[in-house]
Amino acid sequence: MIRSICKLPSTLAGQMAANILSRSMASQAPQKMEDYFKGKKFIVTGSCAGMGEKITERLVDLGSFVYAVVEKEEGASKALPNTKQIFCDVSNWEDTYKKMYDIGPVHGLVNNAGVAVIEPFFDVTEHGWDKTLNINARALVRISQAVAKNMIDAGIKGSIVNISSTISTRAIPDHTTYCASKGAVNQITRTMAIELGKYGIRTNNVNPTVVLTRMGKIAWSDPEKSGPIMRRIPLGRFAETDDIANAVIFMLSDYSTMVNGTALVVDGGFLAG
User: Fold this and answer.
1) Which of 117, 138, 154, 201 is a Cys-bridge partner for 196, taking CB atoms 3.0 to 4.6 Å apart?
2) Cβ distance 254 to 31 under 8 Å?
3) Burial of residue 156 (number of CB atoms within 10 Å: 0-12, 13-18, 19+)
4) CB-CB contact of 201 with 159 (8 Å)
5) What is residue 75's DSSP assignment?
6) Of the residues 67, 97, 101, 178, which is catalytic?
7) Which residues partner with 43 through β-bridges?
8) What does the alpha-carbon distance between residue 70 and residue 90 come to, in Å, rounded to a whole number?
């Protein structure tokens, strides 16, 4: 067939080839994005509240099994069906690797665990700096090392999504350590994308603006604090946890198989202006 097409005038041959390709594509109905998640396994860190809780719920609703990483057993919410809680202080270098590696192969990882120590530049403390960088950046590396090793050994072409922030690139007052930690996340993601890409493992960021979790609503309830940021958001609102979960689900799915080493900004246009 191909040999016959090549003998035709170039315009007609090109048209016939396009028609054949179109018929072939039409006969293969694309899989719904939601179908990708059925029966697959994922790890979500910081899964007991806020964005992590919502992402975990969405993955379970889509038919996935989730290893929900929680810092402490005391006070942890009851595990959802099709989840297993993994209690882990992610700032512990050795224990974190062992617990994540012992989970075994999964199809995706969401590095959501994070802290925000709010300190003006001249008031930055050693404790605040170490805690923020250890959990927001160092732990992300250690967790991803264990998860990626399992993916590679199992031949899984998985997806790793790191939760960063818009203030990784546009700083705001009183967030020196947090801005530094999320800037580190951006660069860690890019490096992971380069090194893990050859194994078919994709690594990307989701970078939200202010997210109205329970804590977010309290932290940004003062109009004097929230107003300057809100005024820079063309859509006129802060993000909801569902907005972030939607972006993460896309990045984990096979609808983003050519997306690697980038940031999906969920900010209503905050960084556009």
Assistant:
1) 201
2) yes
3) buried
4) yes
5) T
6) 178
7) 67, 109
8) 9
Amino acid identity of residue 130, one-letter, is: D
**Is 97 a known active-site residue?**
no
Q: What is the pLDDT of residue 194?
A: 98
In angstroms, what CA-CA distances link 174 with 16, 182, 214? 63, 14, 21
Tokens of 97: 């690797």
Task: Note whether 206 and 263 are within 8 A (CB).
Answer: yes
Strand partners, 203: 160
- CA 64/CA 162 separation, integer angstroms: 19
The tens digit of pLDDT for each residue in 236-265 reads 999 999 999 999 999 999 999 999 999 999
The first and second tokens of residue 150, run together, are 């399992």
Render pLDDT for 214-244 as a digit per residue (tens, 0 to 9): 888 988 889 998 999 999 999 999 999 999 9
Rounded distance, CA 112 to CA 68, Å? 11
pLDDT digits (tens, 9 = 90+) for 75-104: 677 788 999 999 999 999 999 999 999 999
Look up tokens 């994308």; give the residue: 193
In the block, which residue shows the tokens 């719904």?
32
Q: What angle do CA 25, 15, 22 make, to 5 degrees?
A: 10
* 210 in Cβ contact with 236 (< 8 Å): no
The pair of structure tokens assigned to 245 is 């979960």
DSSP secondary structure string, 255-268? GGTT--S-EEEEST
Instruction: List, as one string, the DSSP characters of 184-208.
Output: HHHHHHHHHHHHHGGGT-EEEEEEE
